[in-house]
Structures are given as structure tokens and as C-alpha cells.
Amino acid sequence: MSECQLGIGAEVVAGVGMAHKRAGGKVAFGAAAVHQAFTFKSFSSKILVDGDREFNGRFIGLTIGNGSSCAGGMRLTPQARPDDGIFDVLLMREMTIGRRLQGLSKAYAGAHLRLPFFSVEQGRGFEIDSVEEVLVAADGELLGTTPCSCFVLDEKLRVKGRLPPMEGGHEQACCRPSEA
After folding, report:
1. What is the rounded CA–CA span in Å between residue 144 and residue 15?
2. What is the pTM of this model?
3. Which one, out of 85, 90, 96, 127, has a CA that is 20 to 30 A from the CA of 66?
4. What is the pLDDT of residues 76-122, one digit of tens each?
5. What class is the 3-177 domain?
6. Beta strands in the chain (DSSP E)
7. Residue from 67, 94, 88, 81 nearest 8 by CA
8. Coil vs helix vs strand at 68
């Protein structure tokens, strides 16, 4: 997994069909993101990080990444690395439409993190629950709705080929809807 999105990001995935992806990922995801910036309603959520840090509030989205780019080249978790054994999680707090558009315009460069409504937390495991059902997507595919959990699986990825293994052994991650 390179990214798992909840809320506005998953709604963008839902709005981008295969025909749109063929037209160009950057354009398709950008257009869907602009549409969602105007229409998406925030949600109340509780995020538990590594079983001991809790974040509560109203959010428009969360992006859990172990890579620096997603969604047609957006750099939502620009410091995330696939081999460090931790996730970077972008918390997108409730904000006005103007602030959403400002954040979107900066997301391709990773500069949205300088804005006050965006923050990044790091951890190996996340449990997310929300009052409302919120869509969950990973790597451009819809998975279901909250509640969900995402966690690092140590040394589980085996690649056949002539590529040298990555250092650290933390190359795979898992994001799935929680059992009801």
C-alpha cells in the first residue's frame, strides 16, 4: 500500500472512473478534488495512534501513507518513506471551502503542510472510527467504510525479480475495514 484515504480523498476516488483515469491521472484526480472541495461535508472522528495517542475532532479527510505521492501526483504525505516501518498520516481538519482550495493548490508540491488545518502524525498502527459512515479507499480502490484500521506488517513483502531488497524490511502495509 502506498496510501489509504478516508473522507474527501475516498470520495475523490469514488468520483474518478477508469475512463477519467485513462484521460490522465493528474487531471482526473484534480478535477474530482476541486468538486469535492465544494461539496464534501466534514465528519466527526476518533483516531487512535499506536494504541496510546488519540485525536478527536471534525475532519474532511485522513491520508495514511508510506509513500510520498498519490492521487495523480499529489504529495499529501511528502516525507513518508516505504522502508522506514512507519506511516505518515495527514490529518485534514474541518475548514472553509476557500482553505480547502488553497490546500489543494499546494498539495502537488507538498506545501499544504504549512497551512494550519493540516498536520502529520506518525505511527505503526491506526484505528479510525467516526460517528458518520465515511468512505475508505486504498491505492485508488474503494474498500468500504469506517471503522477501519491500518497497520504495518513487518517483513511481509516478497518481490520476485532482480531488484535488491530494500533496507529495513518494512515494505508492506495493510489498511482494511474493521470487523463489525
Report:
1. 15
2. 0.77
3. 96
4. 777 878 788 888 888 989 988 999 888 887 877 777 778 889 889 99
5. mainly beta
6. 3-7, 43-49, 53-65, 87-93, 118-123, 125-130, 135-138, 141-145, 148-153, 172-177
7. 94
8. coil
